[in-house]
């Protein structure tokens, strides 16, 4: 199985990434795998480490965000799958790329300085190189995230 | 002077019991000095009128030096230690001789020497027990004062900046206090703050066990899917009208927060709210921010709704029923105002951008997901929960502390539903309990060295005997400070201060100032993103859904909410208590 892995987070900033993924999938007639990674780092500094409570809820939310993208893709006649993982975003993207033998990865290029953004420009470039080396995929940027 | 210790101890206990029975009134001697029953009694207080425990009181000749009592060392004759209520009782076992003084000394206080006077000595020798006038000790600023203060500030800063986990910050504070207390005196005896045993006295176990019991109950409730089901029902009831949905969600979140902790409530409400909002084509922030406002405000209507209320209730002996009757009406008015305010600020965002087909598909998924997953356990939790509320309300009639109710409720629930006990115990957030215990030690240290007394003196001088001024000061200073610093350590530190003001301002006996502290510290949480843990977890989840909540964004929406709700609660308290 080949296709495009599109890591999304939801929200208006993810929309260009989703559209780019759908358009690329249509162009190459391959499926798109919308990936949402549950990351619970934000609970680290609160007085309650309630990861056991929130994990399932975050998974459901991730599925929901991907479902929204999946509906958009299907409207354009593109086959779309939903993948929800938990852990480190970069590692999970690599893992999914290897699992689905992806040809392309589409990730959003940050517009501004987002706090805690995994994909700031410098890291994004390093990440792109690592991803291409480790998975043999082509990384495509979209404006957003 | 030659009596053996056990004999002295027995006499002391007998005398103490006798004196307690007669309320420490001056008793006419029935025996001569040196006979059992002749005692010199009195009480030692600090400048705020709080009893001083552990002060050594000695009858001696003027100018004589007495070595400080070491741990485990027995008291000498004509010497006593003050009890928790500040009282002391010195048995007069032999006739007294000459000019004598009563020396009162305690670490971190200036030593006081009070002449006994020949009349007192004569009466004691004639076998008459005497109760002396109260001794007032005044704190002295030593190196330990500055060290304890700096450690406390360091803990506050570490928590505020998030450099260390809250629990680790407080634990580090407690560890430093003990390092200075035990190793410091090798270099300089003034570095001593307090002993481990003294530190333990500052831990409020009622708070610790109440929180632990409630955590077990919450661990059962949160697995039942009740929050997701309620949120989806709210959508159904609203008929897709965003303004009505917002109001219903705020009420649900508020009521849930009054009985469960705010963080858990928001952890469970946020993901489902995001999904409902996305289905309807509205910004999730237009529902999430009002929800978190409601959670912070309505939480204060019960004893168990916020950690600050648990602290206040335990310290000031304010019952569950008292919180309900004195705060709930004001909180409900504030909630109505908050709903109107939220509808106004989100009037644009609440306009739906509906894609019917997509909405239908998304709602289908939500309907499958938003189900009660453990209906039997939910029913059982409901029964136990009602029983607990009944006990919380009526418990004070049997002198039952809220912690006892929480432990009984949690145990009953565990026995009834027979969950995996390991899993349930893991659900107890032990880091939070350690946070509270170590925080109590840090606050105890600044209380011990006198910082709290100085703050109390300062606020006391500022507000004088004016109750209205004191109320306004506590509510608004509390609200503004809780916006920027963690409200739990702030409240814990303020309790003795408010206790002092309550004892010194006419009309404050109703404990109104404690309610003011509750309002200020909790409603202040709405003022900024870092004002409450519930805000932070909501922002964390929203950010992971692609809707980041920045500090400025929250401040713009939250600070007016703080002003409105605190203002209303303040007016309510003034009407209710004046």
Protein topology:
The complex is a heterodimer of chains A (145) and B (578).
Chain A: E1 4-7, H1 15-28, E2 32-38, H2 51-75, E3 80-86, H3 89-100, E4 104-109, H4 121-135, E5 138-143
Chain B: H1 5-21, E1 39-46, E2 56-60, E3 79-81, E4 87-91, E5 101-105, E6 112-115, H2 118-125, E7 130-131, E8 135-137, H3 143-161, H4 166-182, H5 184-187, H6 196-201, H7 205-221, H8 226-238, H9 242-259, H10 262-280, H11 285-298, H12 307-316, H13 320-345, H14 356-369, H15 375-394, H16 402-417, H17 421-427, H18 430-449, H19 451-463, H20 467-484, H21 487-504, H22 512-523, H23 533-544, H24 551-577
Parallel strand pairs in B: 1-7, 1-8
Antiparallel strand pairs in B: 1-4, 2-3, 2-5, 5-6
Helix pairs in contact in B: 3-4, 3-18, 4-18, 7-12, 7-16, 7-18, 8-9, 8-10, 9-10, 9-11, 9-13, 10-11, 10-14, 10-23, 11-13, 11-23, 12-21, 12-22, 13-24, 15-16, 18-21, 19-21, 20-21, 20-22, 20-24, 21-22, 22-24
pLDDT averaged residue by residue of chain A:
83
* Distance between the ends of chain A: 27 Å
Shape of chain B: elongated
Name the biggest interface. A-B, 34 and 44 residues
* Class by SSE composition of chain B: alpha/beta
Largest sheet report of chain B: 4 strands, mixed
Number of strands of chain A: 5
Indicate the multimeric state: heterodimer
**Which regions of chain A have little confidence, pLDDT < 50, spanning 5+ residues?**
112-116
> What is the N-to-C order of secondary-structure elements of chain A (H for helix, E for strand)?
EHEHEHEHE
Main sheet record of chain A: 5 strands, parallel
Give the strand line-up of the largest sheet of chain A: 3-2-1-4-5
Bulk shape of chain A: globular
The number of helices of chain B is 24
């Amino acid at each position: 199985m080949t296709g495009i892995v599109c890591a999304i987070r939801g929200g208006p900033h993810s929309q260009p990434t989703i559209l780019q993924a759908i358009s690329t999938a249509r162009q190459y007639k391959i499926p798109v795998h919308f990936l949402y990674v549950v990351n619970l780092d934000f609970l680290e500094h609160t007085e309650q480490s309630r990861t056991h409570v929130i994990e399932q809820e975050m998974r459901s939310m991730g599925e929901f965000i991907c479902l929204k993208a999946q509906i958009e893709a299907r409207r354009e006649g593109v086959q779309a799958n939903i993948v929800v993982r938990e852990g480190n975003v970069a590692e999970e993207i690599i893992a999914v790329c290897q699992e689905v033998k992806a040809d392309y990865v589409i990730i959003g290029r940050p517009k501004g300085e987002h706090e805690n953004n995994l994909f700031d420009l410098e890291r994004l470039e390093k990440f792109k190189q690592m991803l291409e080396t480790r998975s043999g995929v082509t990384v495509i940027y979209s404006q957003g995230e | 002077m030659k009596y053996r210790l056990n004999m002295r101890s027995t006499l002391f206990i007998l005398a103490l019991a006798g004196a307690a029975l007669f309320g420490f009134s001056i008793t006419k001697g029935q025996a001569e000095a040196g006979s059992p029953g002749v005692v010199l009694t009195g009480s030692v207080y600090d400048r705020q009128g709080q009893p001083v425990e552990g002060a050594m009181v000695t009858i001696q000749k003027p100018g004589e030096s007495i070595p400080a009592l070491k741990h485990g060392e027995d008291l000498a004759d004509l010497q006593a230690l003050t009890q928790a209520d500040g009282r002391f009782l010195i048995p007069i076992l032999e006739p007294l001789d000459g000019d004598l003084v009563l020396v009162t000394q305690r670490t971190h206080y200036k030593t006081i020497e009070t002449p006994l006077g020949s009349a007192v000595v004569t009466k004691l020798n004639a076998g008459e027990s005497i109760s002396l006038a109260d001794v007032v000790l005044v704190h002295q600023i030593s190196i330990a004062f500055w060290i304890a203060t700096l450690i406390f500030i360091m803990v506050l800063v570490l928590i505020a900046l998030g450099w260390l986990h809250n629990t680790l910050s407080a634990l580090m504070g407690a560890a430093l206090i003990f390092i200075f207390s035990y190793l410091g005196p090798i270099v300089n005896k003034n570095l001593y703050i307090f002993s481990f045993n003294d530190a333990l006295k500052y831990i409020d176990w009622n708070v610790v066990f109440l929180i632990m019991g409630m955590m077990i109950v919450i661990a059962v409730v949160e697995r039942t899917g009740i929050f997701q089901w309620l949120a989806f029902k709210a959508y159904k009831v609203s008929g897709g009208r965003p303004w009505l949905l917002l109001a219903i969600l705020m009420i649900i979140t508020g009521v849930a927060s009054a009985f469960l902790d705010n963080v858990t409530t928001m952890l469970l409400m946020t993901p489902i709210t995001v999904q409902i909002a996305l289905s309807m084509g509205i910004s999730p922030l237009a529902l999430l921010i009002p929800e978190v406002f409601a959670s912070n405000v309505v939480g204060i209507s019960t004893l168990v709704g916020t950690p600050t209320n648990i602290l206040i209730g335990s310290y000031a002996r304010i019952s569950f029923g008292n919180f309900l009757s004195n705060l709930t009406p004001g909180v409900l008015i504030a909630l109505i105002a908050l709903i109107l305010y939220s509808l106004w600020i989100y009037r644009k965002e609440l306009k739906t951008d509906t894609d019917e087909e997509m909405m239908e598909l998304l709602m289908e998924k939500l309907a499958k997901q938003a189900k009660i997953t453990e209906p039997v356990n939910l029913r059982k939790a409901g029964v136990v929960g009602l029983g607990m509320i009944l006990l919380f309300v009526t418990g004070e009639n049997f002198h039952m502390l809220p912690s006892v109710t929480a432990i009984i409720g949690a145990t009953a629930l565990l026995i009834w539903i027979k969950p995996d006990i390991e899993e349930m115990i893991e659900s107890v957030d032990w880091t939070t309990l350690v946070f509270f215990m170590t925080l109590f030690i840090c606050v105890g240290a600044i209380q011990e060295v006198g910082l709290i007394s100085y703050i109390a003196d300062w606020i006391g001088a500022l507000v004088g005997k004016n109750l209205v001024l004191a109320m306004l000061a506590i509510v608004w200073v509390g609200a503004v400070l809780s916006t920027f610093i963690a409200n739990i350590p702030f409240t814990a530190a303020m309790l003795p201060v408010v206790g002092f003001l309550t004892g010194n301002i006419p009309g404050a006996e109703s404990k109104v100032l404690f309610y003011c502290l509750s309002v200020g510290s909790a409603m202040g949480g709405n003022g900024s993103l870092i004002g409450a843990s519930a805000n932070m977890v909501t922002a964390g989840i929203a950010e992971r859904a692609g809707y980041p909540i920045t500090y400025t964004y929250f401040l713009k929406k939250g600070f007016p909410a703080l002003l409105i709700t605190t203002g209303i609660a303040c007016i309510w308290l003034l009407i209710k208590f004046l």
